Amino acid sequence: MISVGVDVGKRSFQAYLKDDRDGILGELSLPNDSLGIQGLIETLKGREAKAVLEATGNKWIKLYDALELGAPASS
Length: 75
Description:
The chain is α+β, with helices and mostly antiparallel strands. The protein has helices spanning 34-44, 61-69, and strands spanning 2-8, 12-19, 23-31, 49-53. The chain has one domain: 2-Layer Sandwich (Nucleotidyltransferase, domain 5). It has a 4-stranded mixed β-sheet, covered by helices on one side.
């Protein structure tokens, strides 16, 4: 299982990936738009993951919806 912690900002988000066995897997800094969201989804594709998002304003909603669906996000 991969745990993902996401710090959501207006223009970008940082995702921190960790698993139960190997510890920290990496850190991603992606634009907070459809391309960035798709990049995170592609990184997680085929893996069991749980994500925690910082719910700041309304900037987290598109990312949350896309992760819930596991599908591409549109701008």
